[in-house]
Every structure is written in structure tokens, then in C-alpha cells.
Amino acid sequence: MTTGSVVLIDPQSYISQQIQKLVIENINFFCVESTADAKNLLSRQPCSVGLVILDPSLKDSLEEVESLVVATSKTEWIALVAPAFMEMAHVRSFVANAFYDYHTLPVDLQRLLMTIGHACGIAHLRLSLAKSKKENADPGHFGIHGNSAIMQTFFQRLDKVINADLAVLIGGETGTGKELVAQAIHGHSRRSKGPFVAVNCGAVPQNLIQSELFGHERGAFTGAQQRKIGSIEAANGGVLFLDEIGDLPLNLQANLLRVLQERTITRLGSTQPVPVDFRIIAATHVDLQQAIQNGSFREDLYYRLSVIQLDLPPLRSRDGDVPLLAEVIFKRLSANNPHCRANGFTSQALRVMSTYRWPGNVRELINRIHRAVILCEGKLIGVSDLGLDAYVDIPEAKTLEDARASLDRSILEISLRNNGNNVSRAARQLGVSRVTFYRMMNKHNIAATH
Ligand SMILES: Nc1ncnc2c1ncn2[C@@H]1O[C@H](COP(=O)(O)OP(=O)(O)OP(=O)(O)O)[C@@H](O)[C@H]1O
């Protein structure tokens, strides 16, 4: 039997007397009278297993027992329940949701000892898993997680950029971590003691963006009742992060260019230039070269901003990073949600997450896991908790040929779904002709209206 310590909450000493008569190899019992005593004990002496008697002798409320069980996640709890208590629906659901197992009173001691042995085994297994996960945990590169080759190359470039004190333009789809990277550059550069001021150029209304960036003097315009320091001035000594730079109106692009050239700023309504010293980091999810072609972005400003260009790859192209990120995010979110019973993901959920295209990238992954942590009722998060039922692949294949066929089929189906069942668009996305696409659909029995 696995070595273990067991805490027993038994106000009337029903079981403790019987248990203490037995000499049980490898198990130490600690008997206490209330949840408060148990909490006290567990803070000094970790126990793999906890037993609590749920009968009229219970001094504490069920809420107090619940908060103890939830707060002691390293202990597997077994309820010893009076038959009359088990008649109550709320007790039944509490026992089913919060406990490793239960026995009905009066207990059969031999059966209980077997359950304790199993619970000790599970507690040890969990502990060793948590330990090895901790040892192998990816600390992330300045809090940015990713083991894929593409992210390792990105990190090498990032390391070089940090202390260069030059303008940086970060490209990448929405949610890929552009702001996180900008914060990492600020936090690890010589400007880390200075401010980090972020402005989302796409989110500030057009009539306010000028005073937001450049500030204004009192009376500069109707409603300007007092002087306002703009974001550029506020970033003095630190970093100015301009997100969605492609949304900055053309007239303000000219003003920003002037600030970058002259390193001074003139508030609206003033003629007095104020010197400013800041590092600019801009981010965009649109192709600025294209915007230059369209005439919506100034080429001279582009060159000023993109002295160093960093491009964050979309999540779908970071090979193997999804399970790693999912684990990191799940740990963080479940730690803040004590009612979450889940310990991880089902293998199907991990498989589906690895093949899903993640149009919203890491932000979408965070949102889906957050939703799952709140909704999940089981011990493992499944595809439906993540809202990914529609992306479940077909049953596991047996041979390499089956595996290829199943992958081809899923790709065709996902591509059709992503393109609103439009075969021409789906074929274009996969880089094959319509004829080839139809042939493949035929081969894999996918109906045209799928
Ligand atoms: N590699 C990563 N490791 C850990 N967390 C990440 C990673 N990438 C992004 N995140 C997290 O994902 C969320 C979205 O990231 P962020 O806001 O930096 O994206 P963004 O590219 O700036 O998005 P947008 O283009 O919509 O402004 C944040 O909570 C961020 O901390």
C-alpha cells in the first residue's frame, strides 16, 4: 500500500476509535473535530487523503466543508455519509462533485481501507505529475511561451532588438501577442524604469486621437477646459506603443513623422515645442506596404517606424505550441477559479486544438479555455467545453494510409466550413484546382452541400 497521511474529521469519534484500534501499515491517521482544525492541521502536515463524516454530528455547515475541500486541492476527499443525508439532492450533488469517493454510514472498515489506499495512490500520482510538470514547465521567454522552431527564431531576433533603442514595427495577425512583445521589449530594455504608454489608434475616435497623442492647452478647442498631456509626452523616458498604426489618419501620420524627426512635441493650442525622448514601437495586423500602395499610409513614416521589423507568426504555424500554451493558460485560469474540477484536457480536445486554425490566435485560445474553465463539469476539458464540437476529426485511423485519408478529409471539411461551403474559395485556399478539389471530395465521400 502507498505511504500516506490521512486526516479524519470526526466530531463524535465514531470512526477514529475503530481506526485507531487497527495498526495499518504505511498510513498515519490524524483525527480532528472540525473543518477549522483540519485546515490548521493541513497547513502544517499535508495529507494525501481526507475523510469527513456528513451526518447530524457535523459541527460545520456544508459550505465550510466545501471551502475546505476546494482549498485543499492536493488532498483526495472521501465522504462518509449518513443514509438520511444522501436522500437530500444538494448533499448528493455536493458529494458527486467535490469528493474522490463516498461510503454510506455505518462504514465497512475493510472496504473503507481499500478506498483510502486507492485515494492515496491517486494523490501520489497527481503530486508526481504536478512535480514533473513544474520541473519541465516552460518559463516562457519574457512571459512569451512557445517551443516551436519558428518561435525560437523569433526569440533570437527579439533578444537582439531589446537593447538597440531603435523604432520597432511588429506585424502579425490579431491576438498573436504584439502588445506582449512590445511590453517585453520595454520591460527588459534600459527604458524599463520609464513609462510604457499604449494607444490603440483604431480604438480612439478620429476627432479625439490628435489630442490623445499630442495633448492640448487649456482653451485649445471648445471643451478643452484644462491642459492635457498627450500620450507621446507621457511616454517621455520610456516606450510609446502605437497599436493598429495603420488606422492613424493621414494628417496625424504627418504630425507623428515630425515628432520622430525633431524629437519635440507641440501641444494643440500651443506654439511651444517640448523635447521628448521615447522609443516608438508600432504594431499592425494589416500589410502596411499594401496600405502605402493604396495611398492610406505614408511611405516616409513607414521607413521611420520599421527600422527593425518583427513578425509574429500565426498560432496555427507554431508547430506543437498549442498544447503547451493551452497548459500554461489553463493553469493560470483554473488557479483563479477554485470551482473548476478539471485537471487538464481530453486527448480529443488536444487533437482538435492542434488542428484548428485559430483565426483569433492566442487571444482566442485564452477565451476558449476561460469559457471551458467556467463551464466544464467533468475532470477533463472536452471539445464541447471549448466550443469546438464542429471541428472534431473522424475516429482515430489504424494505418498510415487511413491516417492520411482521415487528415485529408478533415482538411477538406474544415476548409469548406471556413469558406462557407464555397468550393472555389476552399480550393483556392488549399492551392488546388476546383476539379482536383471535387475529385478529392468524391474520394472521401464529402457531399457538395456539406
Ligand atoms: N506566446 C504567448 N504566450 C503567452 N501568452 C500570450 C502569447 N501570445 C499572446 N499571449 C496573450 O494573448 C493575449 C493577446 O495578446 P496581445 O494583446 O499581445 O495580442 P495582439 O497581437 O497585440 O492583439 P491585437 O492585434 O488584437 O491588438 C494577451 O493576453 C497575451 O498576454
From TrEMBL:
PROSITE patterns: SIGMA54_INTERACT_1, SIGMA54_INTERACT_3, SIGMA54_INTERACT_4. InterPro entries: AAA+_ATPase, AAA_lid_NorR, CheY-like_superfamily, Homeodomain-like_sf, HTH_Fis, P-loop_NTPase, Sigma_54_int, Sigma_54_int_dom_ATP-bd_1. GO terms for biological process: regulation of DNA-templated transcription. GO terms for molecular function: ATP binding; sequence-specific DNA binding. Residues 144-374 form the Sigma-54 factor interaction domain. Keywords: ATP-binding, Nucleotide-binding, Transcription, Transcription regulation. The keyword Transcription applies. This is Sigma-54 factor interaction domain-containing protein.
